[in-house]
Amino acid sequence: MKLKAITDIIESIAPLSYQESYDNAGLLTGHKEMELTGVLLALDTTEEVVDDAIRNNCNLIVAHHPIIFKGLKSLTGKNYVERAIIKAIKHDIAIYAAHTNLDNVLSNGVNEKFAKKLGIRNLRILSPKTGLLCKVFVYVPDNHLSVVQNAMFEAGAGKIAEYAECSFTTEGTGTFKPSDKAQPFEGVAGERSAVTEKKLEVLVEMDKVNSVIQAAKAFHPYEEMAYEVIALQNAHQMIGSGVVGELEEAMPADEFLAHLKKEMNLELIKHTNWVKPIKKVAVCGGVGSFLIQAAAREGVDAYITADVKYHEFFDVENRYMLCDIGHYESEISTLEIFYEAITKKFLNFAVIFCSISTNPIQYYK
């Protein structure tokens, strides 16, 4: 199997276009046409993780965190990043990372997995992203509407939250005057003609616009298809930071903390004081203090994340219980997303969880 088969699966869940501007998700070493012997799943790529890949005859490491964040000017082995990359290249091991692009998707994303472990239901994005949607208008003769519409849906148009094949049509009259070089359709060269048309409107994600337009053109009867693409600032309800939902039953705060500790396999929890029952809960894997105010606006009883600074705990202002469970602990279940996605498609291919804990933080008991 070629490496591209694995990256295609992951990117179908978490397109690279969804990553944050500072991120470096994607293929970091190797090439997509290389033949794979096995896949090792890890949260981070360190020298020890590369050694684990070598031991298990895996020539692809799929990690959540990119080992390369900033540009490298040399590879001399002066730090753990360079040493891990050098070792991977020496042993023909590819490294692929799905980071904030996997954080930002609701379905099969980091935060959905996190929330479901705690039994949080009715999930939705806590802070939806804007600037990811377009409105595409296509003008099409009535008798070709259905085939053009279906082609655009097949290419990914018309999805709104949990609904598919969403569109809107209005009827009007289109006019045209063909030149003597135009292919004949219904008009005569040099004369203006009119035809009854439908204006078909669909929402399209930015990264799918070109494929949707090409699909429409493939089934459109005109030599030159008339269409418009308009960028929107609408919030994308399936893409963004964090998730929020509800527990099936409200829990006393101390019981909720015990539940959190057990389900996330935690050694400790840093949290603010809270005495009311916990029902509405938000989560964000990794660094999530930037969502403290968003959680407050949602009226949550608890917000669980990691890497909260001392003064950021004050920012909660007793509006809910803020829990910091640790970066590694909040994201380690990401490996299960990779495993489930790959093995669902390739049942008999070797996909192995890394046996090395890459958590740099230890707890003295």
The computed structural class is alpha/beta
Query: Largest beta sheet, briefly?
Result: 6 strands, mixed
Q: Share of helix among residues?
A: 25-40%
Distance between the termini: 46 Å
What does this structure look like?
- With 365 residues, the protein is an alpha/beta fold.
- The protein folds into 3 domains: 3-99 and 333-353, Udp-n-acetylmuramoylalanyl-d-glutamate--2,6- Diaminopimelate Ligase, Chain: A, domain 1 (3-Layer(aba) Sandwich), CATH 3.40.1390.30; 110-127 and 240-331, NIF3 (NGG1p interacting factor 3)-like (Udp-n-acetylmuramoylalanyl-d-glutamate--2,6- Diaminopimelate Ligase, Chain: A, domain 1, 3-Layer(aba) Sandwich); 131-234, Alpha-Beta Plaits (2-Layer Sandwich).
- The chain is built from 12 helices and 15 strands.
- The strands form 3 sheets. Strands 5-10-12-13-14-11 form a 6-stranded mixed sheet. Strands 1-4-3-2-15 form a 5-stranded mixed sheet, with helices on both faces. A 4-stranded antiparallel sheet has the order 7-8-6-9.
- The chain is globular and about 85 Å long.
- The mean pLDDT is 95.
Helix and strand layout, with pairings?
Blueprint: H1 3-13, E1 26-29, E2 39-42, H2 47-55, E3 60-63, H3 80-90, E4 94-97, H4 100-103, H5 110-117, E5 120-129, E6 133-141, H6 145-154, E7 168-176, E8 193-205, H7 209-219, E9 227-231, E10 236-251, H8 253-263, E11 270-271, E12 278-287, H9 292-297, E13 302-306, H10 310-314, E14 321-324, H11 327-331, H12 334-345, E15 351-353
Parallel strand pairs: 2-3, 2-15, 3-4, 12-13, 13-14
Antiparallel strand pairs: 1-4, 5-10, 6-8, 6-9, 7-8, 10-12, 11-14
Helix pairs in contact: 2-3, 6-7
